[in-house]
Structure prediction request, 1502 residues.
Amino acid sequence: MGAIRKSLPVKALFFLGALQPLCAAASSGINVALTASFDSSPYLVELLETAAEENATAYFPILDRIAEGYFEQSKTSQDLYIRFLDLLQNDGHITDPETLSSFQFALSVHSAAPRIEAHYQYYNTSVEPKSEKIAGSNAWIQFHGKQYSTPQMDEAQDASEKSWVPELPFDRVLGDLSNPLQAILYADITTPNFAKFHKSSSQRARVGEISYRVRHKTSTLGPRSPLVVSGYGVELALKRTDYIVIDDRPAEQAAEKGAQKPLQGELHDEDEITDLKPLSASELRLLGSNAASFVLNSEQPLDTLLKLSQDFPKHSSSISSHNASAEFLAEHKSNREQLLPAGYNVIWINGVQVNARDVDAFSLLAHLRRERKLINGIRKLGFSGSEAINLLSHSAITESHIDDEPQRYDFRDEIEGGNVIIWLNDVEKDKRYQDWPTSIAALLQRGYPGQLPSVRRDIHNAIVPTDFSNGKDVAMVVDTIQSLIKRTFPIRWGLVPATNSPGAIAQAKVVCHLHQNYGLSAVMVYLQASANHNKLSYPDKATFEATIKNHSLRKDHELLQLEEVLDSDQAEPRLAGAGQYLARLASNGANPPLFFNGVPIIRNDDWLQSVAQRASGDHRSLQKDVFEDLFNEDSWLPSKFLVQAALKRNPLIIPENEKEIKFVDLSKLDTLDADVFQTLPRFSVAHVADVEQWAYLIVVADFDSSAGLRLFFQAMEFRQSHESAEVVFIHSSRAPVETTGFASRLYYAAQQERPLEYAAAEPVPDDQEGHSQAYWDAVSPLIASFNLKPGESYVVINGRLVGPIAEDQEFDKDDYAALLAYEMRKRIGPATKASQLLGLTENIQSPFVAAKLSSLISTSTISDVPEGIFEAAPSVRTDIFNRWNSSHTVITKGDFDNAIIQVVASIDPASEVAQRWIPILKVLSELNGVHLRLYLNPKNTLEELPVKRFYRYVLESKPTFDDNGSLRNLRAKFNGVPADALLNLGMDVPPSWLVAPRECVQDLDNIKLSSLKDQGDIEAIYELENILIEGHSRDVTNGAPPRGAELVLGTQKNPHFADTIIMANLGYFQFKANPGFFKIQLKAGRSREIFKIDSAGTKGYGPQTGDDTTEIALMSFQGTTLFPRLSKKPGQETEDVLADPIDLASDIAATGAQLANKVLSKVGLSGVDAGKAISKGSKWWSSIRSSTGLTTDTESGGQADINIFSVASGHLYERMLNIMMLSVMKHTKHTVKFWFIEQFLSPSFKSFLPTMAAEYGFEYEMVTYKWPHWLRGQKEKQREIWGYKILFLDVLFPLDLDKVIFVDADQIVRTDMYELVTHDLKGAPYGFTPMCDSRTEMEGFRFWKQGYWKNFLRGLPYHISALYVVDLKRFRQIAAGDRLRQQYHQLSADPASLSNLDQDLPNNMQMQLPIHSLPQEWLWCETWCSDESLKDAKTIDLCNNPETKEPKLDRARRQVPEWTVYDDEVAALARRAKAGDASQSGTEQSTASGDEGTTTRIKDEL
Prediction:
């Protein structure tokens, strides 16, 4: 207990020697650490929660040990750690070395820290102690709505808490959660008081009196220290281009300069060099292969690879002199001929490819835990670890997953007697196709990708169930389908009348009559006219009469009036057949699918794209068969699609979306009492049955109901023809078991081992003692563990869940058979085949074992996240890398025979990816049960230096301790870095982290060690400020993103903790948060008026049992990804959240809709109607009045008169930023607020900013936004800054901010910027200043008047991005942010595009997003503007001069007289502030001042 961490200042944690260096010490270097914004917890709490992550059942037994005083003698963290490991093993909580190693790894990265912090946050934001005594206590209990300060609960405090307290995501409960008597202990478990409370409550919970849970509260014993985190990378990127360009001298001449010594077999971190030698083209060419060969020839290849990779620029010259061995080159070439090209970086874990986004410590820890659970599940069936992995990754399994052939259905109407389908065209007979060739050989003709050849044969058929009283259905027919027919797409279209309402029946009668008596053209005219006059709900007499008047009645047909048509039964046979047809294909409900070549296509906004993709795939398959002469000229080609077509469709068996399939964990059957499990009513499989056909079905139903009886008897009939299927019956009901009911009969038949076939007929014994009820009660926990609702009907086959099956829904013997056949093809068969090919069938002793095996295999790679949201790696497993040769290209580590985790990696050693992945792989290889195969896969040739940075990844496989027994915190340490290199420090963190520099004196943007002289190492501390809650929302009403809807994140004490807006781009949103418990809801106003939240989507993309909550918990360093489902309220279906009753601006709405649609489709948003969305988006957004939640410290209320946005990085630009702010304040009497992107600012600037604000009377606010994962990122820091300037304007600022002005840091203002605030932008979303034309001698440098830009702009001006004003209301109304991001995502696919991202992008989109051209005097730049125009300049920009390349500081002093005055004024203020701080605290504060002159001049050319 004595090992509770003492409080230390942040600096002391690092600068008093408490940190462990990651490499050998050197005379000077750079040290970087990262702390969380929340504090660390007592180490014992972290040990407990980490152990529970590995084994949840250990939680309360370990708490018992803590209460017993087991750790009282442990005085240090190291003592606690050693004793805790002993406890885990001696008490049997964690006994296998693999899990123990995982525990140590998790402890090293503090994986449980966010969960513990969530406890603390919940206590601080949601719990209200009712007395000072309780508030000051280290332990108190809440029971039945009251608070108690004693374990005996004899001093109740008045409390308003509800007696029933729901389970929180971080709760661990002892006892039955449904018990109404709930005890919640809020305690610091390291204090003596905890033991008294715990012993009493846990004892009562174990005997069933109460349910009990422990929630951590912060200790009152003293302050805590910030948590020091690991699991991130740090880079030092080279900034000077002369280090990374190719030296054009011959290699021999370059070598004379002599910098690095040739290698003598090993690399040494401590070797120091002053500068880096450029490489010749010949040295660069084979650098990758030479590096790989050198590593493999070393004594410790993995260690050598790590050293080489992390300091690659330093060792590149020496490596270039090493020649790759012939054996390596030969094997490398051979391996590259199989699967993977040279230079590709890939990681597989047990055959599953890991997404590059997920290669971080926390994601991999979770992945390894899932894999260990999976492999151990298979090991329990009698397989070894390697056998389990071979099974999972076998090609038979892989092939079944990648088989994209969907289930087809017989779309013909012969079964219904024909004459059901109303054909709209006939490719073989209609005149419009008469010039097409009829030979099947024409199918082989070449065409454009996706284009179907024009062949006059019946090939592709599309059948559309159509409700002729439904406007959407009719529009689809008369607009889309008719257009496709007129444009002669070689598809035959047919309609089947849907008759689900009186109006639909009446309209179907009219359509059938017109089709039969007047022809198809009359049908189309009638439907078009009815739609135009809004007369679709029921036949309109005038429309009908006008139609027949203009069309000729066919010969021998009778003229009927509308009333006669409706009264006639002439169409009854056809409509009856249509009803049978749609029932057979399960298409008689709302929004039925259409059928293309027998494949059901979901009828959403993307249905036409899905048809095109299916047609293209079917065409390729047909071409193959024609080429192989499988058809002749007399063949009916659609027969190909009907070979395995099912006659009947049941979407419960084969859903339209494979990801909707759900599974249950069959291993939970093992939790039943053995006697209960063995006596479950069943149709057993004879031992002589064919093992290959084994299947295990569980029918769950209320067998005392008629629906349950039907399921039983249909299962019995099915079983008669499928003797290899074992069928088990489980009774599930909300009501008591009927003593004479069928459930009792099943029980007694099973108990007496009588055939179930006779259960219904035999008498039931007198059951006064309730044996049947007791038996089924014993089974009921299994129903709950499967998340099944009592009383509902389900069928489970080898773990796959089908249901719930509605009472009125037919599920007959044919459905059982279809389900078995489908599962045999998709899952059961491949698993059996793999077992046979591997010779492992001896372990499969029963259908139940076979079912558990195929179930485990099936669930091993399930993901319900739709394609397009994440860049997902293939979900199938593979073993193709086993074909690679492994003699001269691979590094291995670990025990292959006993490993349950096999990591295979292909790494290009000369790549930045390798720098990040190799240290992670090395740590994984140190874990027990892990085997690593690392293939070196360099590119064959290189043309430029591939790695232009030094890199460290901060990670270890287990905790380490210092000599005092304290936990040793980790940091990145760079030694031996070239002293003359100009470097930029950057953080490489997990996707969900937002980090910013917290403490550092030096300029981290421009590091040059030689300029430090005797100042020692650079010490930098970054802070993990926030962990993201992000998500992808959708409106389930129409499937589209609810663009513009506002979400609020809140706690009980602060209901409006943060808020944000939902983008159109993939429905994306993000909140900046930290671990805790929150509630997400719609913001009051128009969002709440139109929408309601059905679910926060905490359990995945699709609806899940129990996910109808809006409460969320952030308790992982991985952050939280939500998939909220919103729906529009009744009567609001057509409303747009951004719209207002008065449309003030529609002029831009239609412009560019076609282009927007094209771009939307490129980023996976093809379902969005851009024209419609943009039109609606152009309405006034008056309902939104508060911040996005993406800013900090924002108070509600009015904004400043002038709001200026800027960004700077590096001390030089921050110095100029101070001068820009001062120049603004010197020229206005209006209120001013500055907005800065926080992560780019240095600690010194942020520490000096309050002094500036107080001195000159302005407000300021830090804003930030994490670059979304789906939006293509930028590697260079400058380009990332440019992106932030333009891509996130709609989400960076509070929504009540009307206008914001961007001003570059290197500008000087000479006017009142309020003029620009009031400037009329003429309806445009933003205003930029055009590039100057007045300095004629620079004409040759004006790129916008040449080449691409000259042709693209066509007379429009090209604008500069150094100054622009944004009308944020207008910007959001027309979805400008979404459109800019879409266009950026498309254009940035070409690395050569958007060379000046922040200004090229808006200029490129002028036709879609108009730019208001500001008067030229708003921005004067000497490079482009004449000297004569300087007198009118309102702002002066120090833009670069491509001709003179004059440094900015020199130009500022020469060109702008007041610049030096302002600079001196700021420097004087900094000195006064520094002197004041020194006199008050005696400590020196770092500031941004003019004193840096000597060190910043070297950076002038940035």
